[in-house]
UniProtKB/TrEMBL annotation, chains A, B, C:
A molecular function (GO) term: hydroxyethylthiazole kinase activity
Record-listed ATP binding positions: R126, S179
Residues that, per the record, bind substrate: M51, G206
This protein's pathway: Cofactor biosynthesis; thiamine diphosphate biosynthesis; 4-methyl-5-(2-phosphoethyl)-thiazole from 5-(2-hydroxyethyl)-4-methylthiazole: step 1/1
Keyword tags: ATP-binding, Kinase, Magnesium, Metal-binding, Nucleotide-binding, Thiamine biosynthesis, Transferase
Xref: Gene3D superfamilies: 3.40.1190.20
Protein name per its UniProtKB record: Hydroxyethylthiazole kinase
Naturally occurring in which organism (per UniProt): Gluconacetobacter johannae
Protein's gene: thiM
Length: 280, 280, 280
């Protein structure tokens, strides 16, 4: 039987089952706000997280990892050095890696660090519309500078950032995922949309970072980076919308999302995934 | 209609509604224990948190922020440098800022850092009795050295620290909030008390830090720093006591507090706030 | 009445009640993933946590603390310096301390740091089988190098690591606790086993770190380090298995474990503890 088309519920379910079967080691260099919730999300979905950021250690761990996740949310000077070592090691070892450019475009230091590590060929980039537009602009990949974001909030919608995302994908070779009410994922030629999720998710810190980490787990078990990113957006969005059915507020939602990531199965994915290729 | 008197339920409800309407950007330089729970509390109540501490970045973010929260709970040498840059930038840009002097008086390094940044004119200071008494003593603002605290626990009650708090407020120009079973808030001449809260809250880490962060959000939307601090003590205390009605233990309490911060409304505040000016 | 034998339910209950009566100050130098959950676990069981890692501050806090917990999970260069200062101070002041050698044997930097601090006479060491086998091998305490672990996962069972654990205990004078489906605890001559716990606990990040922190609290109130470690394994394991009865997934489990640590009492311990000396 041939595999399902990449942007279908069946393909998402296959990815989920591969994560569960392989428990890929996902190395995270991430921020102090989400280190706990990201590790828990990766464990809940069936991956094996490692949070390691000493400069000497990242070079040693990256080649052992099935994927690397780089998140600049609470960047420091030593962490920037560790990121440079890690992404360089990933390029050499062929470990797929994904960048989360938190608040890039607002703060110069992290903008420079994010731009620099693009030279190490990330397999994917996930951010909100403001972040992706800013990174595309910094990379010289067309488009105007976006309206400046405000911290980690985006002032633009995901669809608005699609031209910038396509340009950034073409310039870097990475798949680019733009989160929003409807997520847009592109590798340049192709575009897919994911419409899972719930508005209350914006009141829980770091669910974007969690989406990026889950995309790392999906990259670890699949060769099509764009499919991996789209599947990750379904998995976190679906966990969020199922959790929102029972959560009276964002505290409960954060907890229930971990429960749902753990309990998600083929049937739930087949029933609720809203993923589709976007006709050009 | 004239605005309600500052230390009334109606004034607290107005502050809450202003936060929800404006979603102020609250910049936090905080500790690794509470980064997640503080960000979630700010999101739950309707603010927009940013946790940023690279020295170069704080100078850039502070002028964009509606308030700055400085917490020395897990202070490091680079963080101390970032704090100095941030509070200096806050003074220059007029961004209101609040200090949480965690364990000041117990540990010399953080005591020195906290004392130094008082020169940058914090709008408010929130701590427990031991911390406030120690900081007042360090500042030369009268009073004996307090009985040494033990880590983050206070060995004294809030009322006992009121003279030190008044002196510290007069010496620095900041409003000073002392947390306890009954919180005492003063700007020197005025004193208000808040009697919301629940004893189980002392078994959840970082709820004092959360109170400080929420005070940052209140400072961002109000001109009267003392009213802002008092309103914040009501909001977190009220969330805690409503949460304690349904929480069988401190794990559930931490989650339910976030839900309650999200669900608090004018009616709940009008019904349950216990805030009053203290007659001299 | 003479005290109960060390590896009995009654002795565990006594330790729990001593923690509640004394609220020992437990100083943690730990990782960014578990700082919040560890502090909350210590508060829930009745101890008083302090997370402090500035190099100058650790030297000042260690002599005031009733126990020190050292965890190398997200080790950095400055943290390694702070650990060296802290363990040295603990040796001088007689503060009992415990090492959690997270991922030692996989990453050279932390392996060296963990090995170095053994010179400061830890009272206890807690890890999984891979970590304990690796540390014993590094210490030259007999045994072959273990099959390399993979991040924080152990590829071996606790019983398999018992010979290495005994050698490590004899070489260092520390009690060594090996976590697994059945925990094995040894001081060299003696061995005890603890069979509390639940498989879903492996899907929550940092429960091993929490076990180590609770062992710190137990060390703070008891003279028999091996009994302290065994009692801690019962307390966290029992909280986990009671929590698993009501938790539909790992998010809920993390929350319910804190509730259960808070609610554990003599009766629950007497009824459910599964602790026993292992006959030689």
């Amino acid at each position: 039987m041939s595999p399902p088309a990449p942007f279908t519920s069946a393909a998402v379910a296959d990815t989920l089952e591969r994560i569960r079967a392989r428990t890929p080691l996902v190395h995270n260099i991430t921020n102090i706000v989400v280190a706990n919730s990201t590790a828990n999300a990766l464990l809940a979905i069936g991956a094996s997280p490692a949070m390691v950021e000493a400069e000497d250690e990242v070079a040693q761990l990256v080649p052992l990892a099935a994927a690397l996740v780089v998140n600049v949310g609470t960047l420091t000077v030593p962490q920037a050095a560790a990121i440079a070592r890690a992404t360089h090691a990933a390029r050499l070892s062929g470990t797929p890696w994904i960048l989360d450019p938190v608040a890039v475009g607002v703060l110069d230091f992290r903008s420079r660090v994010a731009l620099d590590c693009l030279a190490d060929a990330p397999r994917a980039i996930r951010g909100n519309a403001s972040e992706i537009m800013a990174l595309a602009h910094l990379r010289g990949a067309g488009g105007d500078a976006p309206p400046p974001g405000r911290g980690v909030d985006s002032l633009s919608g995901a669809a608005e950032a699609l031209p910038a995302a396509r340009s950034l994908a073409r310039a870097t070779g990475a798949c680019v995922a733009v989160s929003g009410a409807t997520d847009h994922i592109t590798d340049g030629p192709r575009v897919a949309t994911v419409a899972n999720g719930h508005p209350m998710m914006t009141r829980v810190t770091g669910l974007g970072c969690t989406a990026t980490a889950i995309a790392g787990a999906c990259l670890a078990v699949g060769d099509d980076a764009m499919a991996a990113c789209a599947h990750a957006m379904v998995l976190i969005g679906l966990a969020g919308e199922l959790a929102a059915r029972i959560a009276p507020g964002p505290g409960s939602l954060q907890v229930a999302i971990l429960d749902m990531l753990y309990r998600l199965d083929r049937q739930a994915v087949m029933e609720h995934a809203r993923i589709a290729p976007l006709e050009p």
